[in-house]
Specification:
about 65% helix, rod-shaped, alpha+beta, six-stranded antiparallel beta sheet, Outer membrane efflux proteins (OEP), 11 helices, 2 domains, about 15% strand
Length: about 450
């Protein structure tokens, strides 16, 4: 029995890919890459992730409007001779700081006998409110509101890359499974053909009394069993084709035989596919892990933001009133305040607690994913190794069956055996080759899967 080493096996796999993909390359781009490009353009999951990323990019450019200024204008009139108006401009700043300017004008007049007394009072005031737990007290250099939008941009970018990778892996899996089912269909058709030949030969033998009805019934049952398996394999095959169409979100024609043959053309190695994969997906070693880690950072940032928002607020105010002659008064009115209401608000405590729970949950999900990835990687490595061993055994069987078929061919020419004996050996060889080709497809698939372990 011929033994194939692991390193030699890989070379054999690449060399013998053309044993079962025996068709000409009909286009410059392999069909598998064409299908993937269609999926990347049309798949709803990718389009949704792309929209989320573009929205995050837009928000990151303007900070989500977190520090947009506010402007308000108000006025009132109580009587014909009494009215007031005010204009307020407020500017939030990083660190929980809010600066506010207010200008107001009050006018009133009173008729006292024959004298009208008027009061015109413009006022200017300034107030500054400052959180007592700004972000720099937490050892950070960027306000959590701004930092949150930066993190979200990176988070949604990695989610987009993960969506691309996931769709591409789903496409390649279903394509490989479709090819494997196609091999199974061919193998079952061979088996049905063999049973039919055996039935015809046995039926002729029955005419001369050399066989009985029970033997024919047994062959009928075998044929019926193979036909049921064939129907199942055909249903599975078209099911995988339908999944590919769903992933592409388009009625892409995969039904032409030449396209199935060229799905993964000869000499198209896993290295070729991985190069295409990494290039088109702007590949990161694991964008989903990166996204989960960014989720942890977002939750940590949310806690800092909540602490900044819920800390007591120190306020300073200053105003310059004017007298009725519109002359500036000499003295400023100054004020200092300390507001503890954010600290004792029930909503405040709820938001902070929710942020802490969110952080713990994000950490748990991230750590669980890393463990799951290691488990999947080990599992894929094991399956890959098992398929390699099966390839060794199947390859040895092919060599053995080839010798037997050659011997049977000579015996058939010499009239030692019947044509049925020869056809039986030949079909067994053909089915063994189909099994070998299916194993190579599985090795091809798991070599890709263990690279990503999604």
């Amino acid at each position: 029995m011929k033994s194939v080493s692991s390193s030699g096996l890989t070379r054999k796999i690449l060399i013998r890919m053309n044993l079962f993909l025996i068709c000409n390359i009909l286009s410059a781009q392999p069909v598998i890459e064409t299908i993937i490009n269609i999926a990347l353009e049309n798949n709803p999951q990718i389009l949704s992730a792309k929209a989320d990323y573009e929205a995050a990019v837009l928000l990151s450019k303007n900070g989500g409007g977190a520090f947009a200024p506010g402007l308000s204008l108000s006025g009132s009139e109580t009587t014909k001779d009494n009215y007031s108006a005010s204009l307020t401009y407020s500017q939030p700043l990083p660190g929980g700081t809010v600066i506010q300017f207010t200008g107001s004008y009050d006018y009133s007049s009173v008729q006292m006998q024959e004298t009208r007394i008027e009061s015109k009072t413009p006022r200017l005031s300034l107030s500054i409110n400052q959180s007592l737990f700004p972000f720099w007290m937490a050892g950070k250099v960027t306000d959590p509101k701004i930092f949150s939008y930066r993190l979200q941009k990176e988070y949604y970018f990695n989610q987009l890359q993960y969506s691309k990778q996931k769709v591409m892996i789903d496409v390649i899996q279903n394509c490989i499974y479709a090819l494997i089912e196609n091999k199974k269909i061919e193998s079952l058709q061979n088996s049905i053909k063999l049973v039919q030949l055996q039935y015809e030969a046995l039926n002729e033998l029955k005419q001369s009394g050399g066989a009985n009805e029970a033997q024919l019934v047994e062959l009928d049952n075998s044929k019926w069993s193979y036909e049921l398996e064939l129907l199942s394999a055909q249903a599975n095959y078209w099911g995988y084709i339908q999944k590919i169409k769903s992933l592409c979100y388009a009625d892409y024609n995969l039904f032409a035989e030449e396209q199935i043959c060229n799905l993964i053309p000869k000499e198209y190695t896993t290295d070729d596919f991985l190069c295409f994969f990494k290039d088109i997906a702007e590949y990161d070693s694991d964008p989903y892990a990166a996204a989960l880690k960014l989720k942890v950072m977002l939750e940590e940032n949310n806690i800092i933001n909540e602490k900044q928002n819920t800390a007591p607020v120190l306020g300073f105010s200053a105003s310059v009133p004017y007298d009725t002659d519109n002359k500036k008064m000499e003295d400023w009115t100054l004020g200092l305040s300390l507001d503890f209401s954010p600290l004792f608000s029930s909503l405040t405590g709820h938001n902070l607690k929710r942020a802490e729970i969110g952080l713990e949950s994000a950490r748990t999900v991230y750590e669980a994913y890393l463990e799951q990835k290691q488990f999947l990687k080990a599992q894929y490595d094991s399956i890959f190794s098992d398929y390699e061993k099966q390839i060794n055994k199947t390859y040895a069987l092919i060599e053995k069956y080839e010798l037997q078929v050659n011997d049977k061919a000579q015996q058939l020419e010499q009239g030692i055996i019947t044509k049925l004996d020869y056809e039986s050996e030949k079909i067994r060889l053909d089915n063994c080759r189909l099994t070998y080709e299916s194993l190579i497809l599985n090795v091809w698939l798991y070599e890709v899967l263990r690279e990503f372990a999604l």
